[in-house]
Protein backbone atom coordinates (compact mmCIF):
# COMPACT_ATOMS: atom_id res chain seq x y z
CA UNK A 1 0.00 0.00 0.00
CA UNK A 2 1.20 3.50 -0.85
CA UNK A 3 1.97 5.59 2.24
CA UNK A 4 0.59 8.76 0.65
CA UNK A 5 -2.20 10.09 2.89
CA UNK A 6 -5.49 11.73 1.90
CA UNK A 7 -7.20 13.81 4.58
CA UNK A 8 -11.01 13.81 4.54
CA UNK A 9 -12.61 17.03 5.73
CA UNK A 10 -16.06 18.60 5.60
CA UNK A 11 -15.84 20.36 2.24
CA UNK A 12 -15.69 17.42 -0.14
CA UNK A 13 -12.69 15.98 -1.91
CA UNK A 14 -10.82 16.14 -5.21
CA UNK A 15 -10.64 13.85 -8.20
CA UNK A 16 -6.93 13.35 -7.56
CA UNK A 17 -7.71 12.14 -4.04
CA UNK A 18 -10.25 9.64 -5.38
CA UNK A 19 -7.74 8.24 -7.86
CA UNK A 20 -5.03 8.09 -5.18
CA UNK A 21 -7.21 6.08 -2.81
CA UNK A 22 -8.82 3.89 -5.47
CA UNK A 23 -5.81 3.03 -7.60
CA UNK A 24 -2.71 3.85 -5.60
CA UNK A 25 -3.74 2.60 -2.16
CA UNK A 26 -3.36 5.99 -0.47
CA UNK A 27 -4.14 6.01 3.25
CA UNK A 28 -7.12 7.94 4.56
CA UNK A 29 -7.27 10.17 7.63
CA UNK A 30 -10.24 12.07 9.05
CA UNK A 31 -9.59 15.71 9.90
CA UNK A 32 -10.30 17.25 13.29
CA UNK A 33 -12.81 19.56 11.61
CA UNK A 34 -14.69 16.55 10.22
CA UNK A 35 -14.73 14.88 13.65
CA UNK A 36 -16.33 17.98 15.15
CA UNK A 37 -18.94 18.06 12.37
CA UNK A 38 -19.67 14.34 12.80
CA UNK A 39 -20.26 14.75 16.53
CA UNK A 40 -22.49 17.80 16.04
CA UNK A 41 -24.67 16.09 13.44
CA UNK A 42 -24.92 12.96 15.58
CA UNK A 43 -26.13 15.04 18.51
CA UNK A 44 -28.99 16.32 16.34
CA UNK A 45 -29.96 12.77 15.36
CA UNK A 46 -29.83 11.56 18.96
CA UNK A 47 -32.10 14.43 20.04
CA UNK A 48 -34.63 13.64 17.33
CA UNK A 49 -34.47 9.92 18.11
CA UNK A 50 -35.61 10.68 21.66
CA UNK A 51 -38.75 12.53 20.53
CA UNK A 52 -42.09 10.79 19.86
CA UNK A 53 -42.49 12.38 16.40
CA UNK A 54 -41.50 10.06 13.50
CA UNK A 55 -38.43 11.15 11.53
CA UNK A 56 -37.63 9.41 8.24
CA UNK A 57 -34.61 7.15 8.52
CA UNK A 58 -34.36 7.67 12.27
CA UNK A 59 -37.64 6.25 13.58
CA UNK A 60 -39.46 5.04 10.46
CA UNK A 61 -39.20 2.35 7.83
CA UNK A 62 -37.72 3.07 4.38
CA UNK A 63 -38.96 3.79 0.89
CA UNK A 64 -42.58 2.70 0.48
CA UNK A 65 -42.51 1.53 4.14
CA UNK A 66 -41.70 5.00 5.47
CA UNK A 67 -45.15 5.40 7.02
CA UNK A 68 -44.43 2.85 9.75
CA UNK A 69 -43.13 4.25 13.04
CA UNK A 70 -40.36 2.14 14.60
CA UNK A 71 -39.97 2.11 18.40
CA UNK A 72 -36.57 2.56 20.12
CA UNK A 73 -36.23 -1.13 20.95
CA UNK A 74 -36.31 -2.09 17.21
CA UNK A 75 -34.14 0.64 15.71
CA UNK A 76 -30.78 -1.14 15.83
CA UNK A 77 -32.41 -4.08 14.13
CA UNK A 78 -33.97 -1.71 11.57
CA UNK A 79 -30.55 -0.37 10.60
CA UNK A 80 -29.00 -3.84 10.38
CA UNK A 81 -31.93 -5.06 8.33
CA UNK A 82 -31.72 -2.30 5.73
CA UNK A 83 -28.09 -3.22 5.09
CA UNK A 84 -28.76 -6.95 4.92
CA UNK A 85 -31.85 -6.70 2.74
CA UNK A 86 -30.36 -4.11 0.39
CA UNK A 87 -27.15 -6.12 -0.13
CA UNK A 88 -28.97 -7.85 -2.97
CA UNK A 89 -26.52 -7.49 -5.84
CA UNK A 90 -25.88 -10.27 -8.32
CA UNK A 91 -23.45 -11.06 -11.10
CA UNK A 92 -19.68 -10.66 -11.52
CA UNK A 93 -17.62 -8.90 -8.89
CA UNK A 94 -16.93 -5.21 -9.50
CA UNK A 95 -13.30 -4.14 -9.83
CA UNK A 96 -11.32 -3.35 -6.69
CA UNK A 97 -10.60 0.23 -7.73
CA UNK A 98 -14.31 0.94 -8.19
CA UNK A 99 -15.20 -0.46 -4.77
CA UNK A 100 -12.43 1.54 -3.10
CA UNK A 101 -13.61 4.69 -4.88
CA UNK A 102 -17.21 4.29 -3.74
CA UNK A 103 -16.13 3.45 -0.16
CA UNK A 104 -13.96 6.56 -0.04
CA UNK A 105 -16.67 8.77 -1.51
CA UNK A 106 -19.21 7.50 1.00
CA UNK A 107 -16.74 8.32 3.76
CA UNK A 108 -16.40 11.79 2.23
CA UNK A 109 -20.15 12.39 2.54
CA UNK A 110 -20.28 10.91 6.05
CA UNK A 111 -17.52 13.34 7.11
CA UNK A 112 -19.45 16.32 5.76
CA UNK A 113 -21.49 16.47 8.97
CA UNK A 114 -24.78 16.17 7.09
CA UNK A 115 -25.49 12.46 7.66
CA UNK A 116 -25.69 12.01 11.43
CA UNK A 117 -23.29 9.08 11.49
CA UNK A 118 -21.17 8.66 14.65
CA UNK A 119 -17.42 9.41 14.41
CA UNK A 120 -16.57 5.80 15.30
CA UNK A 121 -18.43 4.56 12.21
CA UNK A 122 -16.39 6.92 10.04
CA UNK A 123 -13.23 5.62 11.73
CA UNK A 124 -14.20 2.06 10.83
CA UNK A 125 -14.81 3.06 7.21
CA UNK A 126 -11.34 4.61 7.05
CA UNK A 127 -9.82 1.57 8.75
CA UNK A 128 -11.34 -0.75 6.15
CA UNK A 129 -9.77 1.27 3.34
CA UNK A 130 -6.39 1.51 5.08
CA UNK A 131 -6.33 -2.24 5.71
CA UNK A 132 -6.85 -2.94 2.02
CA UNK A 133 -10.08 -4.81 2.69
CA UNK A 134 -12.39 -4.61 -0.33
CA UNK A 135 -15.99 -5.82 0.08
CA UNK A 136 -17.52 -7.93 -2.66
CA UNK A 137 -19.79 -5.73 -4.78
CA UNK A 138 -21.75 -7.19 -7.68
CA UNK A 139 -22.29 -5.88 -11.20
CA UNK A 140 -26.07 -5.62 -10.96
CA UNK A 141 -28.24 -4.09 -8.26
CA UNK A 142 -28.19 -0.30 -8.60
CA UNK A 143 -30.79 1.84 -10.37
CA UNK A 144 -28.82 5.00 -9.57
CA UNK A 145 -31.60 6.37 -7.41
CA UNK A 146 -31.73 6.46 -3.90
CA UNK A 147 -28.15 6.33 -5.00
CA UNK A 148 -26.18 3.14 -5.54
CA UNK A 149 -28.09 1.21 -2.88
CA UNK A 150 -27.03 -2.39 -3.47
CA UNK A 151 -23.31 -1.69 -4.07
CA UNK A 152 -23.08 0.53 -0.98
CA UNK A 153 -25.03 -2.03 1.04
CA UNK A 154 -22.45 -4.70 0.29
CA UNK A 155 -19.77 -2.32 1.62
CA UNK A 156 -21.80 -1.56 4.76
CA UNK A 157 -22.33 -5.29 5.25
CA UNK A 158 -18.57 -5.79 5.48
CA UNK A 159 -18.38 -2.99 8.07
CA UNK A 160 -20.81 -5.05 10.13
CA UNK A 161 -18.53 -8.07 9.81
CA UNK A 162 -20.84 -9.90 7.43
CA UNK A 163 -20.56 -11.11 3.85
CA UNK A 164 -17.36 -11.59 1.88
CA UNK A 165 -14.45 -9.29 1.12
CA UNK A 166 -11.13 -9.37 -0.66
CA UNK A 167 -8.08 -9.05 1.54
CA UNK A 168 -4.95 -7.08 0.62
CA UNK A 169 -3.56 -10.31 -0.86
CA UNK A 170 -6.48 -10.53 -3.28
CA UNK A 171 -8.05 -13.63 -1.68
CA UNK A 172 -11.79 -13.73 -0.93
CA UNK A 173 -12.57 -14.47 2.70
CA UNK A 174 -15.39 -13.87 5.19
CA UNK A 175 -15.43 -10.19 6.15
CA UNK A 176 -15.50 -11.08 9.86
CA UNK A 177 -12.15 -12.88 9.54
CA UNK A 178 -10.53 -9.98 7.72
CA UNK A 179 -11.79 -7.41 10.22
CA UNK A 180 -10.52 -9.48 13.14
CA UNK A 181 -7.15 -9.98 11.46
CA UNK A 182 -6.72 -6.21 11.18
CA UNK A 183 -8.09 -5.33 14.60
CA UNK A 184 -11.27 -3.71 13.29
CA UNK A 185 -14.36 -4.13 15.46
CA UNK A 186 -17.57 -4.78 13.49
CA UNK A 187 -19.89 -1.77 13.57
CA UNK A 188 -23.13 -1.89 15.57
CA UNK A 189 -25.36 0.49 13.63
CA UNK A 190 -27.66 2.96 15.40
CA UNK A 191 -30.44 5.28 14.27
CA UNK A 192 -30.07 6.53 10.70
CA UNK A 193 -26.60 5.02 10.22
CA UNK A 194 -27.60 2.08 8.03
CA UNK A 195 -29.50 4.37 5.70
CA UNK A 196 -26.70 6.95 5.67
CA UNK A 197 -24.18 4.34 4.51
CA UNK A 198 -26.30 3.38 1.48
CA UNK A 199 -27.86 6.52 0.10
CA UNK A 200 -25.46 8.15 -2.36
CA UNK A 201 -24.19 8.42 -5.92
CA UNK A 202 -20.76 7.20 -4.87
CA UNK A 203 -20.42 4.24 -7.23
CA UNK A 204 -21.34 6.10 -10.38
CA UNK A 205 -19.32 9.15 -9.29
CA UNK A 206 -16.27 7.02 -8.51
CA UNK A 207 -16.44 5.45 -11.96
CA UNK A 208 -16.88 8.88 -13.55
CA UNK A 209 -13.74 10.18 -11.82
CA UNK A 210 -11.72 7.12 -12.84
CA UNK A 211 -12.97 7.36 -16.43
CA UNK A 212 -12.01 11.03 -16.60
CA UNK A 213 -8.47 10.18 -15.53
CA UNK A 214 -8.26 7.53 -18.27
CA UNK A 215 -9.84 9.72 -20.94
CA UNK A 216 -7.45 12.59 -20.29
CA UNK A 217 -4.60 10.30 -21.29
CA UNK A 218 -6.48 8.68 -24.17
CA UNK A 219 -7.46 11.98 -25.79
CA UNK A 220 -3.83 13.07 -25.83
CA UNK A 221 -2.89 9.65 -27.20
CA UNK A 222 -5.55 10.02 -29.92
CA UNK A 223 -4.01 13.30 -31.09
CA UNK A 224 -0.67 11.49 -31.41
CA UNK A 225 -2.07 8.54 -33.34
CA UNK A 226 -4.01 10.90 -35.62
CA UNK A 227 -0.80 12.83 -36.33
CA UNK A 228 1.06 9.61 -37.11
CA UNK A 229 -1.72 8.53 -39.49
CA UNK A 230 -1.63 11.91 -41.20
CA UNK A 231 2.12 11.48 -41.71
CA UNK A 232 1.80 7.92 -42.99
CA UNK A 233 -0.84 9.12 -45.49
CA UNK A 234 1.39 12.01 -46.65
CA UNK A 235 -1.30 14.44 -45.57
CA UNK A 236 -1.02 18.16 -44.99
CA UNK A 237 -0.52 19.76 -41.61
CA UNK A 238 -1.66 23.15 -42.93
CA UNK A 239 -5.17 22.36 -41.60
CA UNK A 240 -3.72 22.46 -38.08
CA UNK A 241 -2.73 26.14 -38.24
CA UNK A 242 -3.95 27.92 -35.08
CA UNK A 243 -5.56 30.78 -37.05
CA UNK A 244 -7.92 28.27 -38.69
CA UNK A 245 -9.11 27.01 -35.30
CA UNK A 246 -9.33 30.50 -33.82
CA UNK A 247 -12.24 31.27 -36.16
CA UNK A 248 -14.20 28.44 -34.54
CA UNK A 249 -13.23 28.96 -30.91
CA UNK A 250 -13.96 25.62 -29.28
CA UNK A 251 -11.14 25.16 -26.76
CA UNK A 252 -10.88 21.39 -27.21
CA UNK A 253 -10.50 21.74 -30.96
CA UNK A 254 -7.66 24.24 -30.58
CA UNK A 255 -5.92 21.98 -28.06
CA UNK A 256 -6.18 18.91 -30.32
CA UNK A 257 -4.86 20.81 -33.33
CA UNK A 258 -1.98 22.21 -31.28
CA UNK A 259 -1.09 18.71 -30.07
CA UNK A 260 -1.07 17.31 -33.59
CA UNK A 261 0.95 20.24 -34.86
CA UNK A 262 3.54 19.75 -32.10
CA UNK A 263 3.90 16.07 -32.96
CA UNK A 264 4.32 16.82 -36.67
CA UNK A 265 6.85 19.63 -36.27
CA UNK A 266 9.82 18.97 -38.53
CA UNK A 267 8.15 16.15 -40.48
CA UNK A 268 9.43 15.29 -43.93
CA UNK A 269 6.28 13.31 -44.73
CA UNK A 270 3.64 16.04 -44.53
CA UNK A 271 2.78 18.25 -47.47
CA UNK A 272 3.04 15.61 -50.20
CA UNK A 273 -0.71 15.44 -50.67
CA UNK A 274 -0.63 17.21 -54.06
CA UNK A 275 2.20 15.13 -55.50
CA UNK A 276 0.22 11.96 -56.26
CA UNK A 277 -0.71 10.87 -59.74
CA UNK A 278 -4.21 12.12 -58.86
CA UNK A 279 -3.41 15.16 -56.67
CA UNK A 280 -5.52 15.66 -53.57
CA UNK A 281 -7.01 19.06 -53.01
CA UNK A 282 -7.88 18.11 -49.45
CA UNK A 283 -7.34 15.17 -47.12
CA UNK A 284 -10.28 12.95 -46.19
CA UNK A 285 -12.45 13.93 -43.26
CA UNK A 286 -11.01 11.32 -40.92
CA UNK A 287 -7.64 13.07 -41.28
CA UNK A 288 -8.64 16.68 -41.86
CA UNK A 289 -11.35 16.80 -39.19
CA UNK A 290 -9.40 14.95 -36.50
CA UNK A 291 -9.07 18.09 -34.29
CA UNK A 292 -12.76 18.89 -34.62
CA UNK A 293 -13.89 15.43 -33.49
CA UNK A 294 -11.25 14.95 -30.79
CA UNK A 295 -11.77 18.55 -29.71
CA UNK A 296 -15.51 18.09 -29.24
CA UNK A 297 -14.71 15.07 -27.11
CA UNK A 298 -12.23 17.07 -25.06
CA UNK A 299 -14.91 19.68 -24.40
CA UNK A 300 -17.27 16.88 -23.34
CA UNK A 301 -14.63 15.65 -20.90
CA UNK A 302 -14.30 19.20 -19.54
CA UNK A 303 -18.06 19.38 -18.97
CA UNK A 304 -18.07 15.99 -17.25
CA UNK A 305 -15.17 17.09 -15.05
CA UNK A 306 -17.22 20.12 -13.96
CA UNK A 307 -20.13 17.84 -13.05
CA UNK A 308 -17.78 15.53 -11.14
CA UNK A 309 -16.21 18.43 -9.24
CA UNK A 310 -19.63 19.66 -8.16
CA UNK A 311 -20.62 16.19 -7.00
CA UNK A 312 -17.31 15.76 -5.18
CA UNK A 313 -18.18 18.90 -3.19
CA UNK A 314 -21.65 17.58 -2.36
CA UNK A 315 -23.08 15.72 0.62
CA UNK A 316 -25.54 13.24 -0.87
CA UNK A 317 -27.88 11.66 1.66
CA UNK A 318 -31.58 11.39 2.52
CA UNK A 319 -32.64 12.63 4.95
CA UNK A 320 -29.95 15.26 5.35
CA UNK A 321 -28.91 16.77 8.67
CA UNK A 322 -28.84 20.57 8.45
CA UNK A 323 -26.75 22.74 10.72
CA UNK A 324 -29.86 24.47 12.08
CA UNK A 325 -30.96 21.20 13.68
CA UNK A 326 -33.44 20.02 11.07
CA UNK A 327 -33.36 16.57 9.46
CA UNK A 328 -35.08 16.94 6.10
CA UNK A 329 -36.03 14.53 3.32
CA UNK A 330 -34.79 15.47 -0.13
CA UNK A 331 -34.01 14.08 -3.58
CA UNK A 332 -30.29 14.81 -3.79
CA UNK A 333 -29.51 11.11 -4.17
CA UNK A 334 -30.96 11.13 -7.70
CA UNK A 335 -28.13 10.30 -10.09
CA UNK A 336 -29.31 12.27 -13.14
CA UNK A 337 -26.47 14.86 -13.16
CA UNK A 338 -23.81 12.15 -13.05
CA UNK A 339 -25.69 9.75 -15.33
CA UNK A 340 -26.02 12.29 -18.13
CA UNK A 341 -22.30 13.05 -18.00
CA UNK A 342 -21.44 9.34 -18.10
CA UNK A 343 -23.65 8.77 -21.12
CA UNK A 344 -22.28 11.84 -22.89
CA UNK A 345 -18.74 10.55 -22.43
CA UNK A 346 -19.68 7.17 -23.92
CA UNK A 347 -20.98 8.96 -27.03
CA UNK A 348 -17.79 11.02 -27.37
CA UNK A 349 -15.57 7.97 -26.84
CA UNK A 350 -17.44 6.01 -29.52
CA UNK A 351 -17.03 8.79 -32.05
CA UNK A 352 -13.32 9.16 -31.30
CA UNK A 353 -12.88 5.41 -31.80
CA UNK A 354 -14.92 5.57 -35.00
CA UNK A 355 -12.75 8.22 -36.64
CA UNK A 356 -9.57 6.41 -35.55
CA UNK A 357 -10.82 3.20 -37.17
CA UNK A 358 -11.54 5.06 -40.41
CA UNK A 359 -7.95 6.32 -40.51
CA UNK A 360 -6.67 2.79 -39.93
CA UNK A 361 -8.81 1.44 -42.75
CA UNK A 362 -7.48 4.17 -45.05
CA UNK A 363 -3.90 3.19 -44.20
CA UNK A 364 -4.63 -0.42 -45.22
CA UNK A 365 -6.49 0.29 -48.49
CA UNK A 366 -4.06 0.61 -51.43
CA UNK A 367 -6.65 2.69 -53.31
CA UNK A 368 -6.69 5.36 -50.58
CA UNK A 369 -3.30 5.11 -48.85
CA UNK A 370 -1.34 7.01 -51.51
CA UNK A 371 1.36 4.47 -52.22
CA UNK A 372 1.43 2.18 -49.20
CA UNK A 373 1.26 -1.58 -49.85
CA UNK A 374 -2.12 -3.31 -49.43
CA UNK A 375 -2.82 -3.94 -45.73
CA UNK A 376 0.74 -2.74 -45.02
CA UNK A 377 1.84 -6.28 -45.89
CA UNK A 378 5.40 -7.17 -46.90
CA UNK A 379 4.34 -9.48 -49.73
CA UNK A 380 0.63 -8.83 -50.35
CA UNK A 381 -1.23 -11.99 -51.23
CA UNK A 382 1.25 -14.21 -49.47
CA UNK A 383 1.05 -11.90 -46.45
CA UNK A 384 -2.24 -10.50 -45.16
CA UNK A 385 -0.54 -7.79 -43.13
CA UNK A 386 -2.89 -5.95 -40.79
CA UNK A 387 -6.12 -6.97 -42.53
CA UNK A 388 -7.60 -8.70 -39.50
CA UNK A 389 -6.22 -6.19 -37.00
CA UNK A 390 -8.66 -3.76 -38.63
CA UNK A 391 -11.46 -6.31 -38.20
CA UNK A 392 -10.66 -6.40 -34.50
CA UNK A 393 -10.73 -2.62 -34.39
CA UNK A 394 -14.06 -2.54 -36.24
CA UNK A 395 -15.57 -5.03 -33.77
CA UNK A 396 -14.49 -2.81 -30.89
CA UNK A 397 -15.95 0.29 -32.52
CA UNK A 398 -19.23 -1.49 -33.22
CA UNK A 399 -19.49 -2.46 -29.55
CA UNK A 400 -18.71 1.11 -28.50
CA UNK A 401 -21.55 2.38 -30.68
CA UNK A 402 -23.92 0.05 -28.86
CA UNK A 403 -22.52 1.23 -25.53
CA UNK A 404 -23.17 4.83 -26.60
CA UNK A 405 -26.94 4.26 -26.33
CA UNK A 406 -27.80 6.25 -23.19
CA UNK A 407 -28.71 4.39 -20.03
CA UNK A 408 -30.08 7.56 -18.45
CA UNK A 409 -32.92 7.74 -20.98
CA UNK A 410 -34.43 4.67 -19.29
CA UNK A 411 -36.28 4.41 -15.99
CA UNK A 412 -38.02 1.46 -14.32
CA UNK A 413 -40.21 2.31 -11.29
CA UNK A 414 -39.37 0.53 -8.04
CA UNK A 415 -40.31 0.32 -4.35
CA UNK A 416 -44.05 0.01 -4.93
CA UNK A 417 -43.99 3.16 -7.12
CA UNK A 418 -42.49 5.33 -4.38
CA UNK A 419 -39.27 5.47 -6.39
CA UNK A 420 -40.99 5.94 -9.70
CA UNK A 421 -38.22 7.68 -11.67
CA UNK A 422 -34.62 6.48 -11.46
CA UNK A 423 -31.39 7.55 -13.19
CA UNK A 424 -29.73 4.27 -14.24
CA UNK A 425 -26.47 6.08 -13.53
CA UNK A 426 -24.71 2.93 -12.30
CA UNK A 427 -25.49 1.25 -15.64
CA UNK A 428 -24.19 4.31 -17.49
CA UNK A 429 -20.97 4.10 -15.50
CA UNK A 430 -20.51 0.37 -16.07
CA UNK A 431 -20.86 0.67 -19.83
CA UNK A 432 -18.55 3.68 -19.90
CA UNK A 433 -15.81 1.62 -18.24
CA UNK A 434 -16.18 -0.95 -21.02
CA UNK A 435 -16.11 1.81 -23.63
CA UNK A 436 -12.97 3.38 -22.20
CA UNK A 437 -11.19 0.02 -22.28
CA UNK A 438 -12.27 -0.46 -25.88
CA UNK A 439 -11.08 3.03 -26.84
CA UNK A 440 -7.59 2.23 -25.55
CA UNK A 441 -7.52 -0.88 -27.75
CA UNK A 442 -8.79 0.99 -30.82
CA UNK A 443 -6.10 3.65 -30.46
CA UNK A 444 -3.46 0.95 -29.96
CA UNK A 445 -4.40 -0.62 -33.29
CA UNK A 446 -4.27 2.77 -35.03
CA UNK A 447 -0.86 3.33 -33.47
CA UNK A 448 0.27 -0.11 -34.67
CA UNK A 449 -0.84 0.61 -38.24
CA UNK A 450 0.30 4.23 -38.38
CA UNK A 451 3.83 3.50 -37.12
CA UNK A 452 4.18 0.73 -39.69
CA UNK A 453 2.94 3.12 -42.37
CA UNK A 454 5.45 5.78 -41.35
CA UNK A 455 8.30 3.27 -41.48
CA UNK A 456 7.20 2.08 -44.93
CA UNK A 457 7.67 5.61 -46.29
CA UNK A 458 11.29 4.84 -46.95
CA UNK A 459 13.37 7.80 -48.05
CA UNK A 460 11.20 10.26 -46.16
CA UNK A 461 12.01 11.44 -42.64
CA UNK A 462 9.26 11.51 -40.01
CA UNK A 463 8.99 14.23 -37.39
CA UNK A 464 11.34 13.85 -34.40
CA UNK A 465 8.35 13.29 -32.10
CA UNK A 466 6.97 10.63 -34.45
CA UNK A 467 10.34 8.93 -34.54
CA UNK A 468 10.39 8.94 -30.75
CA UNK A 469 6.97 7.28 -30.66
CA UNK A 470 8.04 4.61 -33.14
CA UNK A 471 11.28 3.90 -31.30
CA UNK A 472 9.54 3.63 -27.92
CA UNK A 473 6.91 1.29 -29.34
CA UNK A 474 9.58 -0.93 -30.87
CA UNK A 475 11.46 -0.97 -27.56
CA UNK A 476 8.21 -2.17 -25.92
CA UNK A 477 8.33 -5.33 -28.02
CA UNK A 478 6.06 -4.25 -30.89
CA UNK A 479 7.90 -5.01 -34.11
CA UNK A 480 7.84 -2.98 -37.31
CA UNK A 481 7.11 -3.98 -40.92
CA UNK A 482 7.87 -7.53 -41.98
CA UNK A 483 6.36 -10.87 -42.93
CA UNK A 484 3.16 -12.05 -41.29
CA UNK A 485 3.50 -13.14 -37.67
CA UNK A 486 1.33 -13.82 -34.61
CA UNK A 487 -0.20 -10.37 -34.09
CA UNK A 488 -2.25 -10.74 -30.89
CA UNK A 489 0.68 -10.39 -28.44
CA UNK A 490 1.95 -7.30 -30.23
CA UNK A 491 -1.49 -5.68 -30.28
CA UNK A 492 -1.80 -6.36 -26.56
CA UNK A 493 1.65 -4.85 -25.95
CA UNK A 494 0.62 -1.79 -27.97
CA UNK A 495 -2.52 -1.44 -25.85
CA UNK A 496 -0.51 -1.53 -22.62
CA UNK A 497 1.94 0.96 -24.16
CA UNK A 498 -0.92 3.41 -24.77
CA UNK A 499 -2.83 2.80 -21.53
CA UNK A 500 0.17 3.15 -19.19
CA UNK A 501 1.13 6.49 -20.73
CA UNK A 502 4.38 5.49 -22.44
CA UNK A 503 3.20 6.77 -25.83
CA UNK A 504 2.50 10.24 -24.46
CA UNK A 505 5.69 10.22 -22.39
CA UNK A 506 7.84 9.30 -25.41
CA UNK A 507 6.37 12.09 -27.52
CA UNK A 508 6.49 14.71 -24.75
CA UNK A 509 10.21 14.15 -24.36
CA UNK A 510 10.45 15.82 -27.78
CA UNK A 511 7.48 18.20 -27.85
CA UNK A 512 7.24 19.22 -24.22
CA UNK A 513 3.89 18.89 -22.39
CA UNK A 514 0.86 18.25 -24.56
CA UNK A 515 -2.70 19.19 -23.62
TrEMBL record:
Known pathway: Amino-acid degradation; L-histidine degradation into L-glutamate; N-formimidoyl-L-glutamate from L-histidine: step 1/3
Reactions accelerated catalytically: L-histidine = trans-urocanate + NH4(+)
Pfam families per the UniProt record, alphabetical: Lyase_aromatic
Cross-link 5-imidazolinone (Ala-Gly): residue positions: 145-147
Enzyme class: lyase
EC number: 4.3.1.3
Modification note: Contains an active site 4-methylidene-imidazol-5-one (MIO), which is formed autocatalytically by cyclization and dehydration of residues Cys-Ser-Gly.
One biological process term in Gene Ontology: cinnamic acid biosynthetic process
UniProt entry keywords in alphabetical sequence: Cytoplasm, Histidine metabolism, Lyase
Record flagged with keyword ATP-binding: no
One GO CC term on file: cytoplasm
Sequence positions bearing 2,3-didehydroalanine (Ser): 146
Localization per record: Cytoplasm
InterPro entries documented for this protein: Aromatic_Lyase, Fumarase/histidase_N, HutH, L-Aspartase-like, Phe/His_NH3-lyase_AS
UniProt-listed Gene3D superfamilies: Fumarase/aspartase (Central domain), Fumarase/aspartase (N-terminal domain)
GO molecular function list: histidine ammonia-lyase activity; phenylalanine ammonia-lyase activity
Homology family: Belongs to the PAL/histidase family.
HAMAP family recorded: His_ammonia_lyase (MF_00229)
Protein name: Histidine ammonia-lyase
Organism: Streptomyces clavuligerus
Amino acid sequence: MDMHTVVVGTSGTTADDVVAVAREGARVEISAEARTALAAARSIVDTLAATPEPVYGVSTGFGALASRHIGPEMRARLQRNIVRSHAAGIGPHVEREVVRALMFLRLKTVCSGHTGVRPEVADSMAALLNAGITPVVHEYGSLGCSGDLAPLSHCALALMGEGEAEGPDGRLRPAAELLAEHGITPVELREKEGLALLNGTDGMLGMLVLALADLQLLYTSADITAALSLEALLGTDRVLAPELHAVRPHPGQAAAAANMSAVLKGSGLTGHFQQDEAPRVQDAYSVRCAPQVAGAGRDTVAHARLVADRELAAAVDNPVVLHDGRVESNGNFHGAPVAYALDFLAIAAADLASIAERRTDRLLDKNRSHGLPPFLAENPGVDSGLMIAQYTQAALVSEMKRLAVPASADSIPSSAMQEDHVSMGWSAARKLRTAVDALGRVLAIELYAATRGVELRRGLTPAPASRAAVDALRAAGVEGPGPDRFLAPELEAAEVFVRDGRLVAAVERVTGPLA
